[in-house]
């Protein structure tokens, strides 16, 4: 390799090494940060999996629950005009799934490698599709909108359950455990389990035909560091 090209190559490698070192340092700082602030409404919904990660890991955080009038005042100051927002040492992260992925990496609820993280993302996105499909029902069942809850349960909710739930049960059978991955609980387990707890409040027989998902919910509730949180957290419809 000519000397000039060799020097250019080495300079490029040094820049990449410095960038990687700065990234690792930043990740260590974020992981050890105690100044976490989670901002959301006084609901579980899109912020609860983040709360569960904080509680399960014993990580200190400020659980900021705002009113609709407070949100109207602060909306323009958020990155995308939506909640939840997570602040880490004052720096904001928006969108619930981005928050979940960030906290999973920082607090120990991610996969062990890129492939496992991609699988976690796949199940999270698949469950997000389910939540989107049943939203007309959950909004009415949760008292957010008016409508015929029985009709929506029959025509929207049950067909979605029958379409999506078997895939999760197949996965749980394959791992031969209570969680979707054999390495232990991940953030997507929290995301799914809490949503199922909400839905069980609307339909107590929801998991009668899906015992694997029932065991997942029970396993999450019985994690030692979460038991007291489930006992003291505010009771909300969603």
UniProtKB/TrEMBL annotation:
GST C-terminal domain boundaries: 113-238
Example GO BP: glutathione metabolic process
Source taxon at top rank: Eukaryota
GO molecular function per UniProt: glutathione transferase activity
GO cellular component, one term: cytoplasm
Annotated coiled-coil segments of the chain: none
Family: Belongs to the GST superfamily. Sigma family.
Record keywords, A-Z: Transferase
Residue ranges of every copy of the GST N-terminal domain listed in the record: 34-111
UniProt protein name: glutathione transferase
UniProt cross-references to InterPro entries, sorted A to Z: Glutathione-S-Trfase_C-like, Glutathione-S-Trfase_C_sf, Glutathione_S-Trfase, Glutathione_S-Trfase_N, GST_C, GST_superfamily, Thioredoxin-like_sf
Pfam family, one: GST_C_3
PROSITE patterns in the record: GST_CTER, GST_NTER
Organism listed in the record: Steinernema glaseri
EC numbers for this chain: 2.5.1.18
Catalytic function, reaction form: RX + glutathione = an S-substituted glutathione + a halide anion + H(+)
């Amino acid at each position: 390799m000519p000397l000039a090209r060799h020097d250019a190559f080495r300079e490029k490698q040094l820049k990449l090494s410095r960038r990687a070192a700065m990234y690792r340092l930043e990740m260590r700082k974020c992981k050890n940060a105690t100044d976490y602030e989670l901002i959301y409404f006084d609901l579980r919904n899109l912020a609860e999996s983040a709360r569960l990660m904080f509680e399960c890991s014993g990580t200190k955080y400020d659980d900021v629950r705002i009113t609709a009038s407070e949100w109207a005042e602060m909306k323009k100051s958020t990155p995308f005009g939506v909640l939840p927002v997570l602040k880490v040492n004052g720096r904001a992260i928006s969108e619930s799934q981005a928050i979940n992925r960030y906290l999973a990496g920082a607090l120990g609820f991610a996969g062990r490698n890129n492939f496992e993280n991609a699988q976690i993302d796949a199940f999270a996105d698949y469950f997000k599709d389910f939540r989107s499909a049943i939203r007309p029902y959950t909004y009415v069942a949760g008292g957010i909108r008016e409508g015929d809850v029985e009709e929506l349960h029959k025509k929207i909710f049950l067909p979605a359950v029958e379409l999506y739930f078997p895939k999760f049960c197949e996965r749980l059978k394959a791992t031969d455990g209570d969680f979707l991955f054999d390495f232990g609980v991940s953030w997507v387990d929290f995301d799914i389990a809490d949503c199922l707890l909400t839905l069980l409040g609307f339909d107590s027989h929801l998991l009668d035909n899906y015992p694997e998902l029932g065991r997942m919910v029970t396993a999450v509730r019985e994690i030692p560091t979460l038991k007291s949180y489930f006992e003291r957290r505010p009771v909300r419809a969603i």
